[in-house]
Amino acid sequence: MRNKILVIDDEPSIIDLLQYNLKQAGFEILTALDGEEGKRLAETESPDFILLDLMLPKLDGMEVCKQLRQKQIMTPILMLTAKDEEIDKLLGLELGADDYMVKPFSPREVIARIKAILRRTQVQSETAVDNKFEETKIVIGELFIYPKKFEAYFKGDLIELTLKEFELLLFLARNRGRVQSRDELLNAVWKNEFSSDTRIVDVHISRLREKLKEETKRPVYIKTFRGIGYKLEEPKN
């Protein structure tokens, strides 16, 4: 069965370029020229992946991303932006996008990025099924992490995490008690799929803390070591 890709972009030339190349690569394609239609298709057609332009009519890309995540639609999102400004990239990631690319881009690079993220997502699903009765868990205070199911619970409640958020939390948990530099976290979680900008690590740490209901100035689980990196540790009684 072919993976279904939803392309949301208001430029017909970009739509045509991506549609042609993605079909050649074996994907099924859905398209939308504005944010409202794109959001509707994301909710009703269950795509496997979303290519989402930042600047869209009716509903911009960041708002589309935000609303989908609020509805717990965790489909991987690759943000497309013509703005080469860090604030746009980081804000998109903070709202739940998995990655970004700046226009103009190579269709080959887009396809490679899509395949890499889908490959991880597929491994996640297959691992959860294959190991249904062989779960192992990591327990840190009231945080329970099930690596084989790709699930995490805090105080008994399931935490809704993107794939990157889960991978970051799992890496910190497996190295709990040890300070990990931003470069180490970037290499471990994003490997060669992202730029060398370690601020993406800070954005994802911020999102994890929010989901763990951590106080910004007095985090209990994920501690900041200024100028170095982060450490996940057992909460002190």
UniProtKB/TrEMBL annotation:
Matches recorded under Pfam families: Response_reg, Trans_reg_C
GO molecular function: phosphorelay response regulator activity; transcription cis-regulatory region binding
Keyword Transcription regulation: yes
Organism superkingdom: Bacteria
Primary site of residence: cytoplasm
Cellular-component GO terms for this entry: cytosol; protein-DNA complex
GO process annotations (BP): regulation of DNA-templated transcription
4-aspartylphosphate sites (modified residues): 53
Domain OmpR/PhoB-type per the UniProt entry, residue ranges: 135-234
InterPro entries in alphabetical order: CheY-like_superfamily, OmpR/PhoB-type_DNA-bd, Sig_transdc_resp-reg_C-effctor, Sig_transdc_resp-reg_receiver, WalR-like, WH-like_DNA-bd_sf
DNA-binding region location: 135-234
Record keywords, A-Z: DNA-binding, Phosphoprotein, Transcription, Transcription regulation, Two-component regulatory system
Cellular compartment(s): Cytoplasm
Ranges for domain Response regulatory: 4-118
Keyword Disulfide bond applies: no
Record-linked PROSITE patterns: OMPR_PHOB, RESPONSE_REGULATORY
Protein name per its UniProtKB record: DNA-binding response regulator
Originating species: Neobacillus cucumis
Species classification: Bacteria, Bacillati, Bacillota, Bacilli, Bacillales
